[in-house]
Amino acid sequence: MRKTFLPIAATIAATLAFAGGAATAQDKPVQLKLSSWVPAQHPLNPALQAWAEDIKKASNGTITATLFPSEQLGKAFDHYDMARDGISDFSYVNPGYQPGRFPVMAGASLPFLFANGKSGSAAIDAWYRQYAAQEMKDVKFCFAFVHDPGTFHARKKITVPGDIKGMKIRPATSTIGQMVTSLGGTNVQASAPEARDMLERGVADALTFPWGSVVLFGIDKVVKYHMDAPLYVTPFVWVMNKDKYNGMSTAQKKVIDDHCTTEWAEKVAAPWADFEYGGHAKIAAESGHEIYKLTPDQLKAWHEAMAPVENQWAESVKKAGQDPKKVMEGLKASLVKYKAAQ
What we know:
By secondary structure, this protein is an alpha/beta fold.
């Protein structure tokens, strides 16, 4: 009987593919628990599911995932530690929920930086990658993103910084919280799912929130005044448990790495950005709401009022061993590059 031999080139190619190329059926099946604290109907969740489906396809079915929305695996405040500890394999994290823990990332929530959420997500991800390994060393950083710019939504009209004095405000981030304090207001800590209850019970007078989520969380039922200015964005990260990643095959790790990119940051964030942007028109169409723009003088006053907050942020970055000037210049350059600067 005549023996048959594979050509040498084909043999080498097959060997390389098995050693480190695309994930194959020989790879051990991996099941991922994805944790999201926003409600099931939130537009971020379908985007994360689409991301997971693309991973399944790229891994030839060896990596599958289940998404747990609505704080099913744990509270919103705990999501970073949940990924660190393996309660979830991937976590959707708002770093601002833990003030002082992530000082570099907090710079992205300084007011009046971002013009939009789509290209803004690409900008923040490209910028933060150089800091993530140090600042978020407990987890594997996948990507960073932002929502479309949010603003003040309140029971009374807020037009100038002096209006904040004496008010109780739920801030979206630790940086906004610093701004509230510097202006004589009081911070009320509450995650997004808890925010409406805080307002209904009179524990808070106002909050900072993106437009679409005001409707999604029912906050439009308890506030009537809305500042029409791109005040801030909230930075988020999508992070992975390190042990889960390290337990994967080389090929499977490559699939994950290929889905933890700046391109994917923008792709996952885009539907949410559209949703938040659309919230402005929804609220405008409701009766009993006042949406108001700031005059040039009012806007100037807000910019000037940010100086103490920016200085406080800079000091926190210095304590973390980074140069705040370099950090902020890098972020602003990334925003310009991706056409997302105000």
